[in-house]
From TrEMBL:
Organismal lineage: Bacteria, Candidatus Giovannoniibacteriota
The keyword Cytoplasm is annotated on this UniProt entry: no
Protein name listed in UniProt: Cell division protein FtsA
Organism: Candidatus Giovannonibacteria bacterium RIFCSPLOWO2_12_FULL_44_15
Homology family: Belongs to the FtsA/MreB family.
A Pfam family this chain is assigned to: SHS2_FTSA
GO cellular component: cell division site; cytoplasmic side of plasma membrane
Amino acid sequence: MPRNIVHILDIGSKSVKALAAERKSDTGIHILGAAAVPAEGVRRGMVSNPDLLAKKIRMAVSEVERFSGIPFKEAYLTFGTPALGASKVRARVAVAQASGEVGTYDVERVMAQARPSSRDLQNREILDTFGLNYSVDSEMIMRDPLGMKGENLEAEVLFVTSLLKPLREMVSVVEEVGVAINDVIPAPLASARAILTPRQREAGALALDIGAETTDLAVMEENLPFSIAVFPFGGAHITNDIALGFQVGLDSAEEIKTTMRLPEENSKSKNKFQNIVEARLEDMFELVENHLKKIGRQGLLPGGVVLAGGSAKIVGIDEFSKNILRLPSGKGKFADLDTGHRIQDPVWATAVGAALLVLDKETASAKSIKSPSILRQKISAWLRSLIP
């Protein structure tokens, strides 16, 4: 029986992570190899120097190959930059069959009807498509309209998109290294899969992944993404302020940020540290709060806030999140991962989540909520055009 193995590339501003994973059970995965190397040539998740970034990708890929003994020739690429966006569209079509019964053809038509025009997509690419809810003759159906009867089918569809230029630049660098890209996975959705429990994804919860230079946000409800966002603000801003405030190097500042081991253990130093961290966190969580207010979910997510990323290690950040957002808050854990593995570290949330999403689709394709037609379009045209 063939092994169900996937390879993931997660390219962040601080590190380039490569991962080989295998399905362990119906929901869990086994890590065959993992590597993280310091990033160069990337800024806020976007390519700034292709040659430097390509070198780092090669290093990460080679290390995973050495650990796993499996060639790393193709991969799923995560993408989490401010270039990501999402929009909701409502569309309506007449049911095709004379009997009035809604079929697969009707669902495909209403999804196609909702798709943004070529003019709207002039500088963007659709990465993911989700049918959030459906109604037949104004009668609401949350998930599956198949088999219902009526004259008209209406759908609310969420499109996750990216600006083309930064996405193509990232794809080009990876392809140049010799790794073919199977698909591009939005980083906020990957993190949400890794750190939110099924119950949280159903009830409504916020996955907040605070990286070095970006913060990824995904609001999940009914096991579907309700909203996503990426802010150009991350833990490096806190580290930089600590370095300036305490006159230490960036590595020392990073350690101070996550351990609170101050150069001088006195009340003055503790107050300074607290003021620096709280000021930056207030800026960050204000962006999150404004987003929740904009989508009508401020204080209305029973599953609370789950934190990941390097800055999730900041002492007391979960309590800070609870006080600012007025929601239950905690630090994410990878329930579907081998226990005791070193990548239980929250910085691996996006890579682990991406592997889980891919394996979910491969082992339960019938339950997949992604539109197959959009996926085929995405894998074909412009990605293949980048191969020399």
